[in-house]
Specification:
Blueprint (H helix, E strand, L loop, with lengths): L2 E9 L5 H9 L17 E7 L2 E7 L9 H12 L6 E7 L8 H16 L9 E7 L6 H14 L4 E4 L8 H11 L17 H16 L9 E9 L3 E9 L2 H8 L4 H18 L3 E9 L7 H6 L6
Parallel strand pairs: 1-3, 1-4, 4-5, 5-6, 8-9
Antiparallel strand pairs: 2-3, 7-8
Helix pairs in contact: 6-8
Length: 305
């Protein structure tokens, strides 16, 4: 018997969805920072065993959109509700449950519909409520949170974990594998993700921008790989796009120091990701109001239908 299924990870910003994804996959596929809205795309990670295949999807944090880019990010999260065999709704010990009450109600409805099905063949989506960052709280507070979520999502299985410390990951993984339907694999057994090498270069550079700059600057930037030559040394040229001329100056910094720092940090992580030497060249250009332009968002790989 072979089991396969899609496991989609959803929840509010900054609850540790990307850290959980990486822990479950065993590879660093999703970028991680302490800033909200780090994840912009729906990123797939595939775990294969002799008799199973788990296809994980990390999604952007649920938010109220203020421009077209955020509208697309919300679409990724909402789409994850309808095509999952297992839905991981991730919260943490500091999360505000009513932050996105409308989205939570959709999760609750999915859970309730499943519990009302009498035939196991009709039970499409199983909901797991994952309480992350339990290393940051007390047993008493955790007990209160579990009690709260048992009332809020009575039909969901609850798993307290610490994705960062890898606590509870094995138990969650075993429960996910057990919940998968009997099915042949959806992807070749040696495939790790659906994303290209260029995509991960983009994400690594964008992660360093999130870490190196404050306020609106990281959210106004997009990265595009212009050249990717896989030789003995991986030779990469990439452009960082910003919305304003003033932002371009901030990204570059005094005598290019800020851009050099981003490039150095990104190059080290790209070398680790591809396990080979990297020559990275970065450029900065202005693409005015790209976050609100349908055509520009499509150009950068956001599927606006």
């Amino acid at each position: 018997m072979h089991k396969s299924g899609f496991v989609n990870i959803v929840g509010n910003p900054n609850v540790g969805k990307s850290t959980l994804m990486n822990a479950l996959v065993g590879e660093r596929l999703s970028i991680i920072t302490s800033k909200a809205q780090t994840t912009r795309h729906r990123i797939m990670g595939i775990v294969n065993g002799e008799n199973f295949q788990i296809v994980y999807s990390d999604t952007p944090g649920v938010l109220k959109p203020n421009y077209k880019l955020q509208e697309q990010m919300l679409e990724f999260s909402q789409g994850a509700l309808v095509d999952a065999d297992v839905l991981l709704y991730v919260t943490d010990v500091q999360d505000t449950p009513d932050k996105n009450a409308e989205f939570l109600q959709k999760v609750k409805k999915i859970s309730e519909v499943r519990s009302q099905k009498s035939d196991i063949r009709d039970q499409k989506t199983k909901v797991f409520l994952v309480i992350n960052k339990i290393d940051l709280t007390t047993p008493e507070t955790l007990d209160n949170l579990v009690t709260f979520w048992q009332r809020e999502l009575p039909d969901a299985a609850i798993y307290p974990i610490s994705a960062k410390e890898k606590f509870g990951i094995d138990q969650l993984f075993a429960a996910i594998k057990d919940a998968l339907p009997e099915c042949p694999p959806f992807f070749p057994k040696d495939q790790l993700t659906d994303k290209s090498s260029r995509f991960f270069v983009n994400e690594i550079i964008r992660e360093k921008i999130l870490l190196c700059y404050d306020k609106e600057i990281p959210y106004s930037t997009e990265v595009e790989v212009d050249t990717f030559k896989d030789e003995k040394t991986l030779r990469i040229g990439a452009t960082i796009y910003v919305e304003r001329e003033s932002q371009k100056g901030i990204i570059i910094g005094h005598k290019g120091a800020a851009l050099k720092k981003v490039g150095t940090l990104a190059r080290k992580d790209i070398e680790a990701f591809f396990d080979k030497p990297v020559f990275l060249e970065l450029f900065v250009k202005v693409d005015k109001d790209w976050r609100s332009s349908t055509s520009r968002l499509r150009h950068y790989g956001y599927d606006l239908s």
